[in-house]
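Onboarding guide, step 5: your first structure request.
Type a short instruction followed by the sequence, for example:

Predict the 3D structure of this protein.
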Amino acid sequence: MKFLTALDSGVQNILYYLTIALFIALTGILAVNVALRLVNDLSLFVAAHGFDRAAAAIKALFPAASLHWFDEIVELCFASLVFYGAAALWAKGGHFSVGDWISSRLPGHASRSLYKLLVTCVSVVFVGVFFWFSLRLALHATELSTVFQIPKAWMYACMPISSFIMGVYSLGELARDLKAFAAKGSAGQ
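The system replies with structure tokens like these:
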């Protein structure tokens, strides 16, 4: 049991710090790209008003006009951030749930427990379908990114990995819900 607790803590920490790192990388890349575009626009503005030497000096200080590889890295970071972030929330049970609102209005512990069990079963099915199709997408992708020639399968890999993590946590929740439902069912007899 200690191993599973340590594994759970490790997975949650990895997802937590990975999403933070992806967010920082995405923010940094976006900020640099905006700054470079502003510098380029400034040099064009200065040159258009007859200050060619000042424009040349600005371009000499900041030689990169734009990040031509910007789209690829943003796509990779953003997709990974979304899916690993979703898995992190799923692992902690931090997703918004309409089930909490509905279950509090149901009469009796047995109906609430049955409702929670039903919602968990639907979640397991959803995550299973998501895992299956995202794994197929990642395994069958043959395209390469334009600039860095990164296989698109690597970019798609965040989907089956995160859905697998969500599936494991969903199955654990299903086991707890089945145990709670069985306990409430036997207590009611």
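Each response can be followed by summary notes, for example: The radius of gyration is 25 Å.
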